[in-house]
Amino acid sequence: MSVTVRFAPSPTGHIHIGNARTALFNWLFARQNDGRFILRFDDTDAERSKAEFAHQIAADLRWLGIEPDRTAYQSRRMDAYQGAAEKLKRAGLLYPCYETPDELERRRRIRLSRKLPPVYGREALKLTEDEKAAYEAEGRTPHWRFLLPNFDDDPFAPERTDVHWADIVRGPQGVDLASMSDPVLIRGDGSYLYTLPSVVDDMQMEVTHVIRGDDHVTNTGAQIALFEALGGEAPAFGHHNLLTAASGEGLSKRSGALSIKSLAGAGFEPMTVASLAVLTGSSTAISAMADMDALTEAFDIGAASRSAAKFDSADLDGLNETLVHGLAFDAVRDRLADAGIDVDDRRAETFWAMIRANVKKVPEAADWWPIIVAGPTDEAALDGDDLDYARNAFDVLPEGEVDGTTWKAWTDAAKAQSGRKGRALFMPLRIALTGRAWGPELSDLLPLLGREEILRRRP
């Protein structure tokens, strides 16, 4: 059996790191099993779903390294859902309900006061055709519930009905359908909630594995029942733990917290974000994976813990620094150009090899390029004895071509001339050359500048 997975976001906002975790779990599982990955937009909510969010989600996935084998839109598949709804209605498994939210809340409170589970009591099943007509004459439109198979002969006498599945993340799982309300599949305005379109699509798109957050565990029991009611075979399920913000708060597309778009805009590497999104909250050690192949090899879907995991954005900095320090010039050429660096300059590749150890993000290199091509900044200044020392030190710059040995020869000569050593020996020269008291190895910097430019920077 060929593995097919899907990621089904609602295009109602920007996806965040928690959404990316689900997408990556599916993508990596498909890669490990030579399978297919479907991007399926849950855009049946016409009022909240926006095309610009769908475009951005697709772009975010590409940025992470995810390339779908197929992209589908639920808004374009309404006929399939209508057909499934009619099939359920004919079988007596989808029934109309006319209660208002206030009426449902009052019933819930009454059940709680009687120490009964606060589940829907299926009162709508008792309505006569005349009563339904009367409600509709009032202007009420029905919402439609799926009749769960949690009874023998009498739907008003539900019995414990356990639905079991072998969860590929959490191991053996089960849900008692008698503990649940019959789920609403169609709203009063005729629009579909998530459940019915999802099951229909999974059946028709031949999805073999549904991998998602563990907030859907309870839903799985009802969905397995719906698969069976529609004559389909339920796929395998896997429910991974959720990510929260470092504060412990849940992540939300509406708040924009830790959105993939914002992390990309902040200059983080895709593999930094992907590595932390996947490995946080698992028994696999967190490290910066060089590429998707490495992350695929490290990924273990069964290694996710049972409890929610805190995602600390501060951890991104260290991982990103590790990755950036190993990036070759060709891998960052376009981004360096976007940051304002003349990548066609003969010095550009050598510059990157020198400066990458001093930056945490690729765009930060642009802060050093003007120092190479234009001159020192004015962030640090020389005065007094340091100024006099630096001026005299330029007199003993070794003759000939500047190369990787020049810096040591120069500081040896300056030391013999001045008697200085350590920080007092090299720091004034660093400031004179760059205008900063920190930066790349000067033995690497000098060849980039060349003899004429070095002498031009004499204070």
Automatic annotation (TrEMBL):
The keyword Ligase applies. GO terms for biological process: glutamyl-tRNA aminoacylation. It is found in: Cytoplasm. SUPFAM superfamilies: An anticodon-binding domain of class I aminoacyl-tRNA synthetases (SSF48163), Nucleotidylyl transferase (SSF52374). A motif ('KMSKS' region) lies at residues 250-254. Residues 3-317 form the Glutamyl/glutaminyl-tRNA synthetase class Ib catalytic domain. Keywords: Aminoacyl-tRNA synthetase, ATP-binding, Cytoplasm, Ligase, Nucleotide-binding, Protein biosynthesis. A motif ('HIGH' region) lies at residues 9-19. It holds the Pfam family Anticodon_2. Residues 344-457 form the Aminoacyl-tRNA synthetase class I anticodon-binding domain. ATP binds at K253. Catalyzes the attachment of glutamate to tRNA(Glu) in a two-step reaction: glutamate is first activated by ATP to form Glu-AMP and then transferred to the acceptor end of tRNA(Glu). PANTHER family: GLUTAMATE--TRNA LIGASE, GLUTAMATE--TRNA LIGASE, MITOCHONDRIAL-RELATED. This is Glutamate--tRNA ligase. It comes from Roseitalea porphyridii. The lineage of its organism: Bacteria, Pseudomonadati, Pseudomonadota, Alphaproteobacteria, Hyphomicrobiales. The gene is gltX.
